Amino acid sequence: MTASAPRALSFDSAAAQYAAARPGYPPVLLDTVEELAGHPLRGARTVDVGAGTGIATRLLHARGALVTAVEPGPGMAGELRRSLPSVPVVRGDGNRLPLATASADLVTYAQSWHWTDADLSLPEALRVLRPGGALALWWNVADESVRWIADQGARLRRHFGTDDSAHGTPGGAGSRNLGQLSGGEFTQRLLPWSRTVPADLHLANLASHSAFLVRGAAGEASTRRFLDEEQGHLAAVFPDGMVEERYVVELALLIR
After folding, report:
1. Model confidence, pTM
2. For residues 120 and 23, what is the distance between their CA atoms, to the nearest angstrom?
């Protein structure tokens, strides 16, 4: 894995929280994947790389895809196995996929491409895909055109002292690498959506991001203070305690 491996594997310490608090994806996402890939998900041999606790894996499986999940973290893989016992889980990462050449119709990366080295993971994905198969990458990114989300993002950046906002990872860098490929049909889409959740669940979602998790026990007091203060900010915007999270799914799809 890349130099960011400690952050990528930090989710293992909070696998159950990740599974419970992280948002899923809207139905239009998989509709769009089917449209751009040019074939239905039902019956498609699909590899979900960096599958985590199976948030995207579950949706692909429900659409009838024949999914194999690839996940490097033992804690995340264990959570996935418990929730989706019928789905095969392979321990590995995108830089060196433990899968046969030309064995997949679709390779997906849900919120995970940025943890790989694209110079390695892109050739690996293309190797595993059959001719005409599709590589689909997507990210849930908090919609900072919404005022309260932009304000929260600014507070997060001040807290971390970096550009890290724990608001999701835009797909720009990985997508540009794909766009430079020749001999492939490349498409990008932006898909807005929202969900409404209790404030405690929204805060648990924030706390499940690697920017918090890598701090471990040493950062627990700082994290707790930030989340307590954030609860007050949320109460001012959502007095009923229900938070409307707004996202834009950034989707990039390449036909091999």
Report:
1. 0.89
2. 28
